[in-house]
Amino acid sequence: MVHHTMNTRSTSAPSASSKSNVMGSDAMGRALRWFAVAGIVGSLFACASRPLPAPPPAPRVNEGVSAPAPGPAPAVQQRARSRWVAVDWRDLPGWGQDALHEAWNALLRGCEKPAPGFEAVCAEARPLSIAGSAEQQAWLQRRLQPYRVTEADGRAPEGLLTGYYEPILDASRLPTATQRVPLYAPPAGLPAATSGQRWYSRQEIDTLPEAQAALRGRAIAWLADPIDALVLQIQGSGRVNITEPDGRVVPVRLAFAGHNGHPYQSVGRWLLDQGAIREGSWDGIRAWARQNPQRLNEMLWSNPRTVFFREDPLNEFDARFGPRGAQNVPLTPGRSIAVDPLSIPYGTPVWLATQGPALTTQRLVLAQDTGGAIVGAVRADLFTGWGGWNDETYRLAATLKQPLQLWVLWPR
């Protein structure tokens, strides 16, 4: 409370002729002050005798209490490689049927590195991790605006969904009679991926003495199968059980650490263009390689890009999560996608719809990664998990290639 005071003091002493008046005024002033004090004390006593009003009850987490609904969102948002067109929630196929709580872990992971504009949304999303799907759905509808993703010029062609996974491989710390295919850490002087400069190509790395000299001592581990090494480089990361010289087997994660600057070229496309295979699957590629060992290097060299890795420890806790994607947060199986960041920013919730022989689904996913082949507006790579060649995660990733529709969910 602000107390207002009024200065009644004169700047000069009173004259003798007015002294009696001043004394009379003082007596009256004391009386008035006594009544004023008595009134204040009485008021305080009355206030103290009345019970204070009860405070409003604190909101419970599962009540979903948050800020009032924001205002209308822009009808169109333009990105470098896409255009977003606002739609109604009813336009999202399958909306309301997804188990949203299964995606909430991926959402909260993305909130570790929130996209610009998502800070307030992330703060509200964290308490909702223990809420039911109905409450999570209501919050999404109130807080976010769905936009259909189209090409930058507004066209809406059929998009493409593929899959990727984290392979689990066996390797040796040192080369052996059977394990002769190296996986390298980045060499000294490797140009930055954004520089546009190119280092030695895959073929030059295998054949030029100067390239091999630059990589001397940079091998992290050695594999038995060159196609395994190629798959690991295409996937961008993997779990490797490395046999050490003393016989111990140490699980590690090899994470993407750079590439040689050359464009990615599909070896499956190279074989298809030659009529060597009828279907560009890894099973078909492996079968062709077994039948044509003399042309194996020719096939491998058709992809000039080589990927380099860093070795990360893989303890029991880290093994429960996927590798870190381009957003630098761990990926969630079935809920993380790789996108073109010039179309959809990292950390953006996305509604995905696809129908095909490998997968039919409409679900909430998070844009948390990218890849050399993931370019364009309606283009995504679904992270399926981790496993070996015979696991379902590999099978789904290997066969997933079908039409796609995307809607970004953006803060209002």
TrEMBL record:
Pfam families: 3D, MltA. One of its GO terms (cellular component) is outer membrane. Keywords: Cell wall biogenesis/degradation, Lyase. It is an enzyme of class 4 (lyase). Gene3D superfamilies: Barwin-like endoglucanases, RlpA-like domain. Residues 1-23 are annotated as: Disordered. It comes from the Bacteria. One of its GO terms (biological process) is peptidoglycan catabolic process. It catalyses: Exolytic cleavage of the (1->4)-beta-glycosidic linkage between N-acetylmuramic acid (MurNAc) and N-acetylglucosamine (GlcNAc) residues in peptidoglycan, from either the reducing or the non-reducing ends of the peptidoglycan chains, with concomitant formation of a 1,6-anhydrobond in the MurNAc residue. GO terms for molecular function: hydrolase activity, hydrolyzing O-glycosyl compounds; peptidoglycan lytic transglycosylase activity. Residues 10-20 have a biased composition (Low complexity). Residues 168-310 form the Lytic transglycosylase MltA domain. Its EC number is 4.2.2.n1. This is peptidoglycan lytic exotransglycosylase.
